[in-house]
Amino acid sequence: MRLWRVVLLLNLAVAVGVLVGWLAWGREVPRLERLLQENQQRVRVVGGEQTWVVKGIVRAVIPEIQIVVLTHDEIPGFMPAGMTMGFKAQNAKILEGARTGDVVRFTLTGVPPDVQITALVKEGES
Q: How many CB atoms within 10 Å of residue 62?
């Protein structure tokens, strides 16, 4: 086969492939636009300020920087149960009376991941 025929067949194959791909993706555009709009609306809802009331155990209190370290139950839509992490308190008064080992119920408020404890109530000791 002559070289010009090979080049012509390859160009024809590429052109047909591009055309088929363009037609297939052209049919997908409306569906992808709809999915994009749905996800953008979902992000707006998720991105607002939220409040959770969660039970946990105090592992450490650092009043100088207003941090309390807690092992907490699940924070729905934010964190799974059993995690141990530090949370900033809204003010130092919230941490008064909190001791290591206390079982507490705390209120967490904010836009994830920027959340802080706005209330902390002792429920017992572990």
A: 13
What residues contact 55, with CB distance under 8 A and at least 6 apart?
72, 73, 103, 104, 105, 123
Three-state secondary structure readout of 46-103:
HCCCEEEEEEEEEEEEEHHHCEEEEEECCECCCECCCEEEEEEECCHHHHCCCCCCEE
**pLDDT tens track for 70-97:** 999 999 888 899 899 999 999 999 999 8
Instruction: Report the C-alpha gap between 33 and 39 in whole angstroms.
Output: 10
Q: Which amino acid is at 13?
A: A
Q: What are the domain boundaries of the chain?
A: 1-46, 50-125
The whole model's pTM is what? 0.62
Structure tokens at 88: 């900033």
- Conformational region of residue 64, where left means phi above 0, alpha means psi within -120 to 50, and beta covers everything else: alpha
According to the CATH classification, is domain 50-125 in 2.40.50.320?
yes
Three-class SS state of 125: strand
CA distance 98 to 26: 61
